[in-house]
Amino acid sequence: LVAEEEARPLGFSIVYPHRRLAWLRPAFVELVAIVVAPPERDRGLGRSLLDRSELVARAWGARELRLHTARENHGAQRFFLRAGFRPRDADPTFYPRGQAAIEMSRRLS
After folding, report:
1. Shortest CA distance to 77 belongs to which of 13, 34, 28?
2. DSSP 63
3. pLDDT digit string, tens, across residues 6-20
4. Could you give the C-alpha distances from 62 to 7, 28, 65, 79, 102, in angstroms and in order?
């Protein structure tokens, strides 16, 4: 999903369905990435991208949206907590360079 203004990209999100079998509805959808260009922050674009990502997850039939964020990324953690996500688990070596991550999730009703 891309947020743009006058054909200029401002941010994007990537969602991926995790299916037990290819023809089943996803067990959950992962928010792989959500990015807003620094000069465009604090305009509600991140929340808009998150809302649109949730709509896609619901359209796929998912009941849960999950994500990982760096343990040191407190701004992202606050953003997701305000959006109703809750910490699930920690992975001390999630990222390729061994950076620790926190997994967060939100039930989709």
Report:
1. 34
2. S
3. 999 999 999 999 987
4. 31, 5, 7, 22, 21
**Cβ proximity of 3 and 48 under 8 Å:** yes
**Beta strand segments in 37-80, E:** 64-70
Q: Which residue has the tokens 């699930």?
A: 88
Strands (E), 1-109: 2-5, 8-18, 28-36, 64-70, 86-91, 101-107
Strand-pair partners of 106: 65
State how far the Cα of 49 lies from the Cα of 65, in Å rounded to an integer.
13
**List of residues 6+ apart from 47 with CB closer than 8 A:** 83
- Start-to-end CA distance of the chain, whole Å, equals 21
Dist. CA 40–CA 71, nearest whole Å: 24
- What phi and psi, each to the nearest 5 degrees, are found at residue 46? -60, -45
Q: pLDDT tens-digit profile of 28-71?
A: 999 999 999 999 999 999 999 999 999 999 999 999 999 999 99
